Amino acid sequence: MKNTINILALRLSAWLGNVYAQYGLAIMYNTGNGVPQSYANAEKWCRKAAEQGYADAQFDLGYLYYKSKDYFEAVWWYHKAAEQGHADAKYNLRIITTLYIDKLSKEN
Length: 108
Prior knowledge:
Elements: H1 2-15, H2 19-31, H3 39-51, H4 55-67, H5 71-83, H6 87-107
Helix pairs in contact: 1-2, 2-3, 3-4, 4-5, 5-6
């Protein structure tokens, strides 16, 4: 019962725009911890947090796009997180950029 109340409070807080609650819900939906696993809901809540400028959410959203091979969106979100000093986003951005430049140079 207590866990249900905590999850409801977290959902309400996320719905009201709390970036940490939004990101927390994204993690919960991604892992299925305390809620039914739902990648669609994980992306939804991660995007809400990312759009508010939360660097960890921006990084995770970049990773989701990278895994789905949408490199343009991945670069966009990694760049947003890297602008805030997110070290892993900076690293991934360099890797994607290097791979993309190598691919273009081999095609030409």
